[in-house]
Design goal:
Elements: H1 4-11, E1 15-16, E2 22-23, E3 30-36, E4 39-47, H2 54-68, E5 75-83, E6 102-109, H3 117-130, E7 135-139, H4 147-150, E8 159-161, E9 168-170, E10 172-174, E11 177-181, H5 196-208, E12 215-221, H6 228-236, E13 241-246, H7 253-264, E14 272-282, H8 299-307, E15 311-317, H9 319-327, H10 337-353
Parallel strand pairs: 4-5, 6-12, 6-13, 7-11, 7-12, 13-14, 14-15
Antiparallel strand pairs: 1-2, 3-4, 8-9, 10-11
Length: about 350
């Protein structure tokens, strides 16, 4: 079994983003570490005032302890209140005040992973900004936040304002878009080991405790699939509707259908604004007029027709999309076929909603 000193050393890497990047030990929040045959239990001490990053810190602690413990060691994180002073009013952290100036909140979803949903979300945001709209994007993919890398904002930290216990986060601005991601609060490569309720709570904070200002569009890059996180987001955030991202293969139809059915469920009942067929064809960058349908032709149109939704756009597979995502320069900022495809997608979505 790992010793307490090793665990203490690992926990020194967990820092509170809103308190000067101080470690939990420096802040007096690390109350107890218990090691037994049943596993490791870490107790964190919080003031009575609500800490907007409580769920994030608990997940970060669990991940840090897991890194130094033998595989399979049960790790739990408990919290206690140490400040019994009267709680301050913290309406901003759970109210809809911060999103009252947003005209359209749109979810970017997919039935499965690997279809380029985040790529579409980031480039759609940049394309809408190119058209002159005020745009923000919330990266709700807590288990694989990719927005910091794709936008070249990795390593940056959002500014924090407001009173202690009722902090407000300010999004990072670049390419004319306001970005917010849980990735800004986690170390590179750090796994966020969260159960569903913790993830749901953290995501709502990443949206509702952010000073977005006046926006025409707020895109929410949702996690792939369907589950508790999706249902919680749609029920607690006034999401106007969704755009579904897929690839052309026939085998993707079942996954798309699940995603569409989720939004059409009577307990959610949100419109699907359209289907985006990503990787619709391959176009060599040096031969922009050539099209090679390596994943099949017409799959997106067939899916859209079968599900009774509009095919909102088709995005070609161009090497520049991957290179742009890796280098932090979204393809939508350029003039290649993929760039113009994202602009056309943005135009189609804006026309549908305005």
């Amino acid at each position: 079994m790992t010793g307490k000193e090793e665990i203490l050393t690992a926990l020194k890497e967990v820092r509170h983003p809103a308190k000067g990047e101080k470690s939990l030990e420096e802040l007096g929040m690390l109350k107890d570490i218990r090691i037994s045959e049943e596993g490791v239990t870490v107790t964190l001490a919080f003031p009575k005032r609500r800490d907007p990053l409580a769920e994030y810190l608990s997940g970060a602690v669990r991940a840090a302890v897991n890194r130094v413990c033998p595989p399979g060691t049960p790790v739990s994180v408990e919290s206690v209140v140490v400040d019994e002073s009267p709680a301050r009013k913290t309406t901003k952290d759970l109210s809809l005040d911060m999103i009252s100036g947003i005209r359209h909140i749109i979810g970017i979803a997919s039935g499965k992973g690997g279809v380029g949903k985040s790529t579409v979300a980031v480039n759609l945001a940049c394309a809408l900004a190119r058209l002159g709209y005020r745009v923000g994007l919330a990266d709700a993919d807590v288990y694989g936040p990719s927005v910091p890398v794709m936008t070249g904002t990795e390593g940056l930290s959002p500014a924090v304002g407001g009173e202690e216990g009722a902090e407000i986060f300010y999004p990072i601005e670049k390419f004319g878009v306001r970005w917010m991601s849980i990735g800004y609060f986690a170390n590179r490569g750090q796994a966020l080991i969260w159960r569903g309720p913790m993830a749901c709570s953290a995501l709502k904070q990443m949206i509702l405790q952010v000073d977005w200002g006046e926006l025409d569009f707020l895109l929410i890059d949702m996690p792939p699939g369907t589950g508790d996180i999706h249902i919680s987001l749609v029920q607690d955030i006034p999401m106007e509707g969704a755009v579904i991202v897929t690839t052309p293969q026939t085998v993707a139809l079942a996954d798309v259908e699940k995603g569409v059915d989720m939004f059409r469920n009577k307990n959610i009942d949100r419109p699907i604004f359209g289907l985006v067929e990503n990787m619709a064809w391959f176009t060599p960058e040096e031969h922009p007029d050539e099209k090679y349908y390596i994943f099949g032709k017409g799959g997106g149109a067939a899916m859209a027709k079968e599900l009774g939704i509009e095919l909102l756009g088709q995005i070609p597979l161009v090497q520049g999309i991957r290179e742009g995502g890796d280098s932090g320069e979204p393809a939508a900022l350029g003039s290649r076929p993929d760039s113009t495809a994202f602009v056309r997608l943005a135009e189609a979505l804006a026309e549908k909603l305005n």
